[in-house]
Amino acid sequence: MRRRSSRRGAMAAPPRLVALATLLFQVLFAVCAIGADRPETRLLLASDATSGERHTEEYCAMYDICGARSDGKVLNCPYGSPSVKPDDLLSSKIQSLCPTITGNVCCTEAQFNTLRAQVQQAIPFLVGCPACLRNFLNLFCELTCSPNQSRFINVTAISKVNNNLTVDGIDFYITDAFGEGLYDSCKDVKFGTMNTRALEFIGAGAQNFREWFAFIGRRAGVNVPGSPYAITFRPNVTESSGMEPMNVSTYSCSDISLGCSCGDCPSSAVCSNSAPPASPKEGSCSVRIGSLKAKCIDLSLTVLYIILVSGFFGWGYFHRRRERNTAMRKPSSNVTDDQYQNIGRQKNENLPMEMLEDAPHIRNGVQLSFVQGYLSKFYRKYGTWVARNPIFVLFTSLAAVLLLCLGLIRFKVETRPEKLWVGPGSRAAAEKQFFDNHLAPFYRIEQLLLATVPDGMHEKPPSILTDDNIKLLFEIQKKIDGIRANYSGSMISLTDICMKPLGQDCATQSVLQYFKMDPENYDNNGGVDHVSYCFQHYTSADACMSAFKAPLDPSTALGGFSGNNYSEASAFIVTYPVNNALDKEGNETGKAIAWEKAFIQLAQDELLQMVQSKNLTLSFSSESSIEEELKRESTADAITILISYLVMFAYISLTLGDTPRLSSFYISSKVLLGLSGVVLVMLSVLGSVGFFSILGVKSTLIIMEVIPFLVLAVGVDNMCILVHAVKRQPLELPLEGRISNALVEVGPSITLASLSEVLAFAVGSFIPMPACRVFSMFAALAVLLDFLLQVTAFVALIVFDFLRAEDKRVDCFPCIKVSSSYADSDKGIGRKKIGLLARYMKEVHAPILSLWGVKFLVVSVFIAFAVASIALCTRIEPGLEQKIVLPRDSYLQGYFNNVSEYLRIGPPLYFVVKNYNYSSESRQTNQLCSISHCDSNSLLNEIAKASLVPESSYIAKPAASWLDDFLVWISPEAFGCCRKFTNESYCPPDDQPPCCPSGQASCAADGLCKDCTTCFRHSDLQNDRPSTSQFKEKLPWFLSALPSADCSKGGHGAYTTSVELLGYENGVIQASSFRTYHTPLNKQVDYVNSMRAAREFSSRVSDSLKIEIFPYSVFYMFFEQYLDIWKTALINLTIAVGAVFVVCLVMTCSFWSSAIILLVLAMIVIDILGVMAILKIQLNAVSVVNLIMSVGIAVEFCVHITHAFSVSSGDKDQRMKEALVTMGASVFSGITLTKLVGVLVLCFSRTEVFVVYYFQMYLALVLLGFLHGLVFLPVVLSIFGPPSRCVLVEKQEGRPSIQSLFRT
Questions:
Q1: Quick check: helix, strand or coil at residue 447?
Q2: pLDDT in tens, 757-773
Q3: CA 13 to CA 9: how far, in whole Å?
Q4: How far apart are CA 152 and CA 56, in angstroms?
Q5: What is the Cα–Cα distance from 88 to 336, expressed in whole angstroms?
Q6: Which runs of E-coded beta strand occur in 518-653?
Q7: Contact partners, residue 471, CB within 8 Å, separation at least 6
Q8: % helix, strand, coil for the chain, step of 5
Q9: Pairing mode, strands 74-76 and 65-68
Q10: I need a labelling partner for 1231 at 20 to 30 A (CA). Which of 207, 651, 762, 1269 fits?
Q11: 478-534 residue pLDDT tens
Q12: Can you tell me whether residue 166 is helix, strand or coil?
């Protein structure tokens, strides 16, 4: 998305904008003696050096025209003479343009006509602010025609041209007050088409009036824009000279009568009431304690932690004292504590916990909940039936899942980013569709970045602007122009697909545009010096105009500079805008994609070597690059994922088997059983994919890569628990009894864990992002199918495997039978020694956790980390870096790094107005525009105000306004723009191609249009606004008008796609846009905040103006999800944890047990968020899905221990020890280590997204789940655990039946 910061601004600027400073001043001063060719002679004149030189009122310093330069610029005479009274016609003409000039004048009609012809070039830039325009015109009117000209003009140099003396230098005495007044009135006037100040065009970006005057007075050579003679502006004169600085009154732009807009004059009184919002202070609430500054939330959580730990310590102290006192006073009872303790000690770890024989006359039964009791009865009968019918169960379950797999014939993979990451109900998607359908799709971007390499580690990179580097850029351009891509038999070149604002030349953004993209112009124009010149005059010098007839802003073609110091740029940025198409399958896009592939291939095969040989770096990208690299990613980690599966398979096989013995390993191993379990996992994934494929849901590459691993990690736990439960049963029982007892022992907890996982995964389907929603749906069904296959097909496979072992058949080769020595060596499998892990749990782990000091330490540490994680959560940033999603060896990795480092301008931002009513009865025109007579709170004025606080608004500059330019274009003051023939047809400006062949009635001898008048007089307009019919008639003229020197406001090219003309005849324009830019966005959070700020701004303005307005930028569609990502995450996590709580409550009928599980799950999720903050993992749909899945996976660390604790007897410490001995080893080996070995392999992935979002987050989940499940949970249970479900049953007649030991 950052790559979209390639700019549209300069390419949308009006073509053929001639240097207003040049085109304007070359004649404005030509009127007053615009220089000469290289003078044959030059002499400095004293005040009395020229005959008749006088500095008095009614006297001229220059009068009439005495020659012309070789480039056609007229030259004034340097002769002083009395001022002349003009005739009435000339006087009225002068008054219309220069109302301050009355009576006599110092200009002839030819001089005035030259002045009038040239100021028309400036008027379109300044007419939006009448005060500025009036001051500007006064400057040149006084210089040209003032009857007191000699009082402030002194000719200091003359030249001889064709034997005539002409002016070659003057001193212009002018007060600082006038200079400041002129500059202040014009400094904020903007030229909307280019999103910049008008002074950039007519003053080279001057920062004060002295810089502006210095620019005006600079001498320029022949055919070079600028003044051809030196003009020295001086503020003071000597008293003896008789001169006086010119000091005509200036108008303030805040003068309400002159109607400057707020955008052009922020200091206006009408604007002061709507000042831009203050920039928000960094951070939120904070507290300073001495020299330490802490956030309020951090301080609050610290206080809360101290209170909790102190309360727990106090409660523990008094609780221990009460226990001791109670133990000392406690009387004996019929069933004593000693009996409970004896019962606990007499339990055999190899027996199921529900089938324990305790004291001689007392048995230990378990009072189960209704649901658990029902499940126990079901699993007892079901286990017996499966053991008796394993073939039927196996083939029936396999047939069902294979039937689902038939849906794979309709299997399709979605790879389009917009379909993966943007929800169908997305507001941004709807706005993009509106923009594309009603205006124009955003163009495709192909981009090259060439950069220099720093000489040292901390040294600044050298400038890229050298002769060799520019010549290298020409060579690269030649190769790119030579690309020919094959598309359906046609050879496609760049010119076939590029964007052409005027339909002629590609709008390529490159410094080569300063040479018209022609290498022959490089040496002819002065090489690097010409580039440096164009940096300062790109808006004004015709020699710097691009091949596509528009100014090229250096910030769009250079990178790595600060401020406006373009000469220190360390990178060339070359951008090729390519036409886009609405239909992805359209031919135009197909041609572009074919060319883009050839472009990338050329860059990799040839351009990279060319650039590196010059000790430069090259990065590149095309519009289709991300999609192509995502496709390549699908195979990048295939080997890594395969190794992960193999490692997990090997561990499963090792874990399921007995302790290895050389004499019987080939019998007791479970390799074939483990392989069968892995196959069942694969079948469950394929069945899930097949089912959704039948429904027409497309899969994604991440589903095929991650879900098998996920389901395997989840499913392996149940495999280990089931096999270990069967192995714990005594061999004296028949196999069907062992299978039945094992299912009764672990079936309810497996069901509880699996249902919790399925519900937790299913909650992810509520996430609006399609890729994550589909992932959650597929994962939930896959986990459900895996559970069903485990309790059906896998139980049947366990039956077959144990029958194989009992029949002394070799694992993996069951047809081979060995001698009976195996039976002797493995005799008494049910009475074998306790395992190493179980011994550790019984003799080390559980006793240590029973110590009160350890309990206090465990609770304090875990609560501390949870509280710290809550504080750290506020530091998690939303977003998903594109380079993380891509393979590490992708060429786009370097491109995204360079984009962040070098780009100095942000993505284009469009404010789109829907249903703009331009009729005379509506006020919406003034509610939108920003020139004179527009509302102070208009849309464009509000955008201009917001651009004053870019740190909070993320708006870099005022918007380019087609509406402002249209209103200026039809204005009578802009007499060179909207013109018509006598037959009411459009008349183009004089400097554009002839409107007709020379000799026709409407054309003069030189082909210029004659008999053309302005479209309107002031009396034709209503308060300077067109009527409905006038607006409707002239808008198409404006959008078709070519910009030029005589009228820079033509809308063709700049606004061709900014207005929808379809159906506009009824007085309503359905869609129009106003373009500005975001500030440079370097981080994902910048993109999110800029989008939020733009939406808040447009919502506020829409409500204020009662006009429907929305912001649009090309990256919004992909970042919309992050606006409410925290809300989405918290809601879904709450639902997931709540679903698990409800399932636990229904299954156990114990609110206390369910609450403890809820607490541990919440702490695990909070701690994972804390780890995310520490590892700087961003919050996005991928991490949200992982968090939701962590709820389901974390259930396994809690449920089995809690269930074992509930059905154990004795005091809470004894029950905690028994639960750890019974299930602790299974949780550690079957859950923790199984997931751990699979996760560790992912750290070798070539794709960063696997390392960050699967290795790091899953590793954190496994470690935190292990610590909470085997450390924190046992401690909590030993302190706050629920009452035991064990009941003592007296032995009446013989041994009670197994069923009598379970009460529901």
A1: strand
A2: 888 778 778 777 787 78
A3: 6
A4: 9
A5: 129
A6: 558-559, 571-578, 616-621
A7: 519, 522
A8: 55, 10, 35
A9: antiparallel
A10: 762
A11: 999 999 999 988 899 999 999 888 778 899 999 999 999 999 998 888 889 999 888
A12: strand
- Check if the beta carbon of residue 679 is closer than 8 Å to that of residue 405: no
Asked if 991 contacts 1045 with a C-beta cutoff of 8 angstroms, the reply is yes
**Tokens matching residue 705:** 């890569």
Higher pLDDT, residue 200 or 257? 200
Query: 308-344, pLDDT tens digit by residue?
Result: 888 878 877 777 777 667 666 655 444 444 444 444 4
Instruction: Please give the structure tokens belonging to residue 617.
Output: 């770096």
Q: Is the pLDDT of residue 43 over 50?
A: no
Query: Is 1180 within 8 Å of 880 (Cβ atoms)?
Result: yes
Please tell me the distance from the alpha carbon of residue 417 to that of residue 127, in angstroms, as a whole number: 46
pLDDT digits (tens, 9 = 90+) for 571-612: 999 999 998 875 544 456 888 999 999 999 999 999 999 999
Contacting residues for 501 by C-beta, under 8 A, at least 6 apart: 11, 12, 15, 507, 548, 549, 550, 1053, 1054, 1056
Report the DSSP pairing between strands 1013-1014 and 979-980: antiparallel
pLDDT value at 277 more than 70: no
Residues 6+ apart with CB under 8 A from 892: 621, 625, 626, 629, 882, 883, 886
- Tell me the one-letter amino acid at 454: P
Burial of 1007 (0-12, 13-18, 19+ CB in 10 A): middle
The pLDDT tens digits of the residues spanning 212-243 come to 888 878 877 676 656 667 788 998 888 777 88
The arrangement of strands across the sheet holding 986-987 comes to 986-987, 979-980, 1013-1014
- Check if the beta carbon of residue 159 is closer than 8 Å to that of residue 40: yes
Q: What token pair was written down for 87?
A: 């005739």
Band (pLDDT 50/70/90 cuts) for residue 392 is: very high
Token pair recorded at residue 553:
């802003």
| Amino acid of residue 1139 | A
Length of the chain measured in residues? 1304
Contact 738, 355 (CB under 8 A): no
Residue by residue, what is the 3-state secondary structure of 722-791? HHHHHHHCCCCCCHHHHHHHHHHHHHHHHHHHHHHHHHHHHHHHHCCCHHHHHHHHHHHHHHHHHHHHHH
Helix-helix angle 701-728:1233-1241, to 10 degrees: 150
pLDDT at 116: 81
**Tokens matching residue 792:** 């059906």
Query: CA 966 to CA 934: how far, in whole Å?
Result: 14
C-alpha–C-alpha distance, residues 1001 and 386, integer Å: 105
The terminus-to-terminus CA distance of the chain in angstroms comes to 59
What pLDDT is recorded for position 231?
A: 82
Q: At 367, which helix (H) or strand (E)?
A: strand 362-367
Pairwise CA distance, residues 677 & 692, whole Å:
23
Tokens 């390529």, located at residue: 508
**What is d(CA 675, CA 681) in angstroms, rounded to the nearest whole number?**
10
230-234 and 164-173 beta bridge pairing: parallel
Q: Are 1147 and 371 in contact (CB under 8 A)?
A: yes
CA dihedral 93, 95, 101, 103 (to 10 degrees): 80
Is the pLDDT higher at 3 or at 431? 431
pLDDT in tens, 877-932: 898 887 787 877 888 888 988 888 888 888 999 999 999 999 988 999 999 998 87
H or E stretch covering 720:
helix 701-728
Q: Report long-range pairs for 999-1002 (Cβ below 8 Å, ≥24 apart).
A: none
**Residue 443 structure tokens:** 């163009």
Q: What is the pLDDT of residue 573?
A: 94
The pLDDT confidence band at residue 192, using thresholds 50, 70 and 90, is low
d(CA 132, CA 154): 26
- Residues 745, 764 contacting (CB under 8 angstroms): no
